[in-house]
Amino acid sequence: MGTSIQNTLTVPEVADRQYLEDTMALRDLIERSFLSMGERLWFIREKMLYRHDYASFLDFVKELNIGNSMASKLMRIYEVFVVKFKFPQPVLAVLPWTSLYELSRLVRNKEEAEEMLGEMPFLKAAELRMRVYELQSGHPCDHDLYEISFRMCHKCPLSERIK
Fold it and tell me: Is this model's pTM higher than 0.70 or not?
């Protein structure tokens, strides 16, 4: 923050700005901690550390209140990129966990993963999927598009495909 702006801010405005900056730092902490959580969950599951206090790993995950889907995604990221492909955690920690999860489902080997990790900071999720397709197929897709129509309820989350 420049000193000219800081000098013109009132005490409440400085507190508000600090609150915003603290929130951004917290978001960064969450982004960096996904690998640690994935590692811990993976280790707990593999070593069955839950068995003395919980009937199953899923019961332990429920106690964490993060959901089985989230736990599975975090463990998959750790297992694929750290355990299987041996990438250093600091390299992965700066990348969005959602994109790493998407990539973990698509890449077949470390070479594909290395290439995609280099491009990942510049790609949105849909672009990432397209790049992996191109990498694996050896050519860009010639797109055979089809249209899908849905009906959706205004009151509840029901949606159905129109045939």
Answer: no
